[in-house]
Amino acid sequence: DALNASAVAKIFEVKERPTFDPLIVHLPHKKDLDTVADVPESIAAVVRRLAERFWPGPLTLLLPKKACIPDIVTAGLPTVAVRASANYVFNRVARNLERPLAAPSANRSSELSPTLAKHVMRSLDGHIDIVLDGGPTAAGLESTVIDLSGPVPRVLRPGPIPVGRLREVLG
Q1: I need a labelling partner for 109 at 20 to 30 A (CA). Which of 14, 15, 78, 157 fits?
Q2: Per-residue confidence (pLDDT) for residue 140, from 0 to 100
Q3: Taking 80 as the threshold, does the pLDDT of residue 164 lie above it?
Q4: What's the burial of 133, exposed, middle or buried (CB within 10 Å: 0-12/13-18/19+)?
Q5: Residue 40, CA distances (Å) to 44, 144, 149 in order
Q6: pLDDT score recorded for residue 108
Q7: Contacts of 29 (CB under 8 A, 6+ apart)
Q8: Do the Cβ atoms of 61 and 170 come closer than 8 Å?
């Protein structure tokens, strides 16, 4: 639960992840963006176009956060990384819980991101209670991260969505 600081702290503990490394918040529905991010009117149309084109999918948007997001999720930064996953199983979990979920890759922080459930078990066995196997990851890469918190959109992490496709939407 991305709104529960104690729950989020367990992610850092299990992954042995440094707390200065923010997490991505996954939404149950695209329409839930306004529950976690404070989208300025000046970029609302751009955010809407990106979400319509690439969500659910491997695009993460960095936006000003709302006060309900605990600092541990964002490493104390004023922005929150948000996406809507295309993985059917993960998406169903988020929708059934009706909560935004803080969810990084399911591995120890020093390891490669897993693409199969067996990789998750190899990395986190004994530290987690359950693995929901949603099949192999679609792209095998972390999501593309675009920062929309400043005056000019910036790609912070290249991923499955090429910059050219982002430019088509951003203009």
Answers
A1: 78
A2: 65
A3: yes
A4: exposed
A5: 6, 21, 9
A6: 84
A7: 84, 95
A8: no
CA dihedral 79, 84, 130, 23 (to 10 degrees): -10
Task: Report pLDDT digits (tens) over 55-79.
Answer: 999 999 999 999 999 999 999 999 9
What amino acid is encoded at 160 in this protein? P
Residues in a beta bridge with 70: none
Q: What is the pLDDT of residues 112-144, one digit of tens each?
A: 888 888 988 888 888 888 888 888 887 667 899
Nearest CA-CA partner of 95 in 144, 56, 150: 56
Compute CA 80 distance to the chain's CA centroid, rounded to the nearest angstrom.
Answer: 9
**SS3 per-residue string spanning the chain:** CCCCHHHHHHHHHHHCCCCCCCCEEECCCHHHHHHHECCCHHHHHHHHHHHHHHCCCCEEEEEEECCCCCHHHHCCCCEEEEECCCCHHHHHHHHHHCCCEECCCCCCCCCCCCCCHHHHHHHHECCECCCCCCCCCCCCCCCEEEECCCCCCEEEECCCCCHHHHHHHHC
